[in-house]
Specification:
The protein is built from 18 helices and 22 strands. The protein is of the alpha/beta class and 458 residues long. It folds into 3 domains: 3-115 and 260-330, FAD/NAD(P)-binding domain (3-Layer(bba) Sandwich); 118-257, 3-Layer(bba) Sandwich (FAD/NAD(P)-binding domain); 368-434, Orthogonal Bundle (Arc Repressor Mutant, subunit A).
């Protein structure tokens, strides 16, 4: 069995940065990712998209320096690798090409990134409705750009994808925005601090300017969202705008309501989590180096809290620097100087976060959908069924899961837990602190019995 110095799970900005820093200092690294290649969601397929970089912007093309940095013989890379069990003794069980392998390390860095927040409303499960992030995956991996799509929701990614579609000569049919005037007013208190990250603010204004210049209609402060499928196979999207009921017909409805940390692995291994009230999600409890309550396990990037790709890369470096110091690969002087430089950069980059969290807050209609809205897509459980269970005395997420099967499907609650939790809080007298983070059991991801039976020591 090969014993690595570090096993890094996730080859996005945080994972690539941690791997390169550790490897060039002399540590042996195993880098695992379930995607076909490096890059994560942000830099997906960046090596093959040189000719399309004008579509995805300079931030996307800048990921090439991270990709090039992990071309090191001390980094063993496996892609299309599904990690389905992580243990406290730093043993990782993962599947690749139909076989499962066991690898061990002195340290583990979890860099699994973020996932899109569930955005339930009547009709969100219809064919022709997909998330903005999923559409961007198709754009980056296959060069497939949606035509005349209607974009619905809120957040920087909504504007980013809209501008990428415009640059690819496939502008959206319309932007339907759930952001309200109250959210804008509430965010102003955080604007002075956000000005320290002027680059990101300017970038956001440029996105909006490009959308306006392209003549894309924008409907702001919308509510009462509903999607229907008409007899011609088109999505008819209904919404209320300025008190008037409106509708748009489209072949493709792209929805987005921000992102939340991906915490399946950190929850399965027993890492402590807490509720982030501004981002409305559970996130692992870590120290300033990314160290968790389990010795030798670190977390870096958006899976520890949403801050964006630039921050994720720096957090990956911090985790690697801490491990290098602990293994005596760098001295105290290098350890302090390098980490101080990174923390200064993080202060300026993260200064915009509270502003963004408030500006693009999740509207109540999304947190507390109507009774006929499907919440658990796998088991087709509605809000009304959850409320009925709560009225019968159910008080915990796990109890709800065993009673009415919400979160019992293949996704293990990834697509519904955030919404189910808010429904429980809204309809009971409980606080977030009294509802535990959901437990994820192995296998973390769906695998075949054949893969489980063919376990080999790496």
């Amino acid at each position: 069995m090969t014993n690595y110095d570090i096993i890094i799970i996730g080859a996005g900005p945080a994972g690539m940065s941690a791997a390169s820093v550790a490897a060039y200092a002399g540590l042996d690294v195993l880098l695992l990712d379930e995607q076909p290649d490096v890059g994560g969601k942000v830099y997906r397929n960046v090596k093959q998209n040189d000719s399309k970089q004008n579509w995805f912007g300079s931030d996307y093309s800048s990921g090439m320096h991270l990709v090039n940095a992990i071309n090191c013989n001390r980094i063993t890379k496996y892609f299309r690798a599904t990690v389905w069990r992580v243990e406290k003794n730093k043993r990782v069980i993962w599947s690749h090409n139909g076989e499962s392998k066991i690898s061990t390390a002195s340290n583990i860095v979890l860099a699994t990134g973020a996932q899109e927040r569930p955005f339930p409303f009547p009709g969100w499960t219809l064919p022709g409705v997909m998330t903005v992030g999923s559409a961007q995956i198709l754009m980056k991996s296959s060069g497939i750009f949606p035509k005349e799509a209607v974009l619905v929701g809120s957040g920087p990614l909504l504007y980013l994808v809209a501008t990428q579609m415009i640059d690819a000569n496939c502008p959206p049919k319309a932007l339907i925005e759930t952001q309200t005037l109250r959210m804008m007013m509430n965010s102003l208190i955080h604007l002075p601090l956000a000005l320290l990250n002027m680059k990101s603010l300017i970038k956001g204004f440029m996105f909006i300017h490009k959308i306006k210049s392209a003549g894309v209609p924008r409907y702001k402060s919308v509510s009462s969202l509903e999607a229907r499928l008409n007899n011609k196979g088109l999505i008819e999207f209904l919404f209320s705008h300025k008190g008037i009921k409106k509708s748009l017909k489209t072949k493709l409805l792209l929805i987005h309501q921000g992102v939340i940390p991906s915490t399946e692995i950190s929850r399965s291994v027993g890492i402590d989590h807490s509720w982030n009230t501004s981002q409305l999600s559970f996130q692992p409890i870590i120290d300033k180096w990314g160290k968790t309550n389990i010795d030798g396990i670190y977390i870096a990037g958006d899976c520890a809290g949403i801050n964006g790709s630039a921050s994720a890369s720096l957090y990956g470096k911090l985790a690697a620097i801490k491990i290098l110091y602990n293994t005596e690969k760098i001295n105290f002087y290098v350890y302090k100087i390098q980490s101080l430089s990174i923390r200064i950069n993080l202060f300026f980059i993260n200064s915009i976060r509270l502003f963004l969290d408030t500006l693009y807050a999740v509207p109540e209609e999304v947190l507390f959908p109507s009774d006929d809205t499907t919440v658990c897509r796998c088991e087709e459980i509605t809000v009304g069924q959850i409320k009925l269970g709560l009225n019968e005395g159910i008080r915990g997420v796990r109890q709800l899961k065993t009673s009415i099967r919400s979160g019992m499907g293949l996704c293990q609650g990834r697509m519904c837990d955030a919404i189910v939790r808010n429904i429980m809080l809204h309809n009971t007298s409980q606080e977030h602190t009294t509802i535990l983070a959901p437990k994820t059991r192995s296998p973390i991801k769906p695998i075949t019995l054949g893969e489980m039976s063919k376990i080999k020591k790496d």
